[in-house]
Structures are given as C-alpha cells and as structure tokens.
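Suppose you are handed a protein chain with no further information: no name, no annotation, nothing but its sequence. What can you learn? This example shows the usual starting point.
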Amino acid sequence: MKIYTKTGDKGTTALFGGTRVAKHHLRIESYGTVDELNSYIGLIRDKNNTKNIQKTLLKIQGDLFILGAMLATPPEKETLKNGKKRLNIDTITDGSIQFLEDEIDAMNADLPQMTHFILPGGHETVSFCHIARCVCRRAERLSVALHEEEAIDLAILSYLNRLSDYLFVLARKLTKNLKVTEVKWTPEKR
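A reasonable first move is to predict its three-dimensional structure. Written in structure tokens, the prediction is:
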C-alpha cells in the first residue's frame, strides 16, 4: 500500500464510500480530532502504568479507530436500499460505553471524594491525561456540530462524553498511584 496517493493535493479527501470533501469539512475535523485524541492516549499508555490501565487504554484506542471510521462514513453510504450495511465496519455500542462506565466506577471506588475543582498537573502523565480530556471534549463538540448538520450515530456522542469523564478520573487515579498532590482550585477572595 502506497502512503502517498496525490489525490489530496488540491485540498480534498475521500470519505468511506468514495465521497470527496474539503479537508476542512466538519466531518474531517471531527475524525481528525479523534485521531489526535488517540495519539495522546497512546502517549499515556506508553508511560509506566499498571497492566490494567495499559490494557484499558489499548481497548479505548481500538474503539477510537471504530469511532473514527463511523465519523468517516457519510450517512448516504452507510446502508444500501435493502437495509444491508454497505460498508462492513464495526460500530460503537452500548457495551463500549458501559465498559468506560465500569472502569470509571472501579477507579472512583479507590479515590477520595471530590470537594473542589482540580487544577491539571502534578506529574507529566497526569498532565497528558488532562490534555487528552480536553482534546476529547473538542472532538465531542465537533461531533455535536456535525450531528446538527447531518445525523450521526448518537453512540458517538455518548462515547466521547463518557471518555472525557474516564480521562478525568484516570488523571485522579494516576495522581494517587504516583503519590503526587492533587491541587484543588479555590477561588481567591477579591
């Protein structure tokens, strides 16, 4: 497979199914941001984490490839007139979302209750979790905007929403595992 095709040299790219759109199209921005998020999660996975966290992050990375493929498929290319799937791609399911919720609940069970907002930072790995969380929120916002223009599977929105929650709780869990101080934000009196 050749890496360069030269088909995008004039500022367009192909979606699944062959439809060509501008590289700044909202659909491209959405799945491009999911790709950026996946790269940050890979960075977090490469840090010295427990085997369980590494395994969970690897599953999330696989789910993000599926989610990206869903975003790269325009609605008119998803199914044939007879209702059969045109493209044979997996989809994000309720089970994918439940997996994130279960992981959040398991980590939260081991953490002190939150009483304040928390400032990002304290350790490089924790900071990467917060960056990934912010990129995830951007991917969610872009996907919501795309959904307002043309319908996308609502599981995409739910998954991204839950994933940002997971990344926040993972940051807290890693703060505890790494024995660094969680800095609570308290507004200054003016």
